[in-house]
Amino acid sequence: MAKMELKIMENGQNGMETAAVNSGTDEVGLVYAAEYTDGDRIVFRVDEKGYYVIQLDDAMGESLVYINTDNIEFPVPFGEKKACYSPKSFTGDKHLLYARKATDGEIATYRNLCLNRYDIHENGGCYPHASANIETRGESVFAAKNAINGNRENHSHGDWPYESWGINMDVNAEMLVEFGRTVTADKARMYTRSDFPHDSWWTQVTLQFSDGSELIWDLEKSDLAHEITFPAKQIEWVRLCRLIKADDPSPFPALSQLEVYGTEV
Fold this sequence. Notes:
Blueprint (H helix, E strand, L loop, with lengths): L2 E10 L2 E11 L1 E6 L8 E6 L3 E6 L7 E5 L3 E5 L19 E7 L2 H5 L2 E2 L13 E2 L1 E4 L32 E2 L8 E18 L9 E8 L4 E5 L7 E20 L8 E11 L1
Antiparallel strand pairs: 1-2, 1-4, 3-8, 4-7, 5-6, 5-8, 6-10, 9-17, 11-13, 12-17, 13-16, 13-17, 14-15, 14-16
């Protein structure tokens, strides 16, 4: 059995102070009946690493994640950092948070191994986690984490629901998705941003895997999912790189969503 705790830490006059807390065994819920203020953080503590289903905001829903530390922190977004989230999230004076151990059935399911609605730049042990060597102007609406949040909407760009990974027109842009453990994968799907004619697209990309293999993936102009299958491989991460832009007047290819499908080892 896993002991766990959900806590809201507020930015008080004397530094970070506990505003609300609840604990449980194998599952825990927390109702926070107050408005968030800038600087607040959501803290989830567990006494064993493993698979958990977390809901840090009731407007965002649940995510099955792998946690390899005893403490993860999620800063409540404000200002520009909030632009990549639904305006319904983290607002108002009543918030429902929830976490539990994932069931054996959930863990064993063939699924999108990249999905994590609560990924953040300052990842502290919650996986999957996306990062990149470039993000357009450092803005939250163009952060790599947007490409693994489950939102496939790709017909515009900017604030939610059109957040994406923006590469700032850099031909050397790369995005890395780490799983935090070894998984078995055999399929990838990708939604390239399709705000035509503002956007361009990639004619070819490369997927590099932690086992040393790589896959060259030819693409075409489309707002639908690109899909590729490959022999099952055990990997700890996948890198999207060698992004070849189409011969198109627009200098703005971008990625709305990357999905890698498989199972736990």
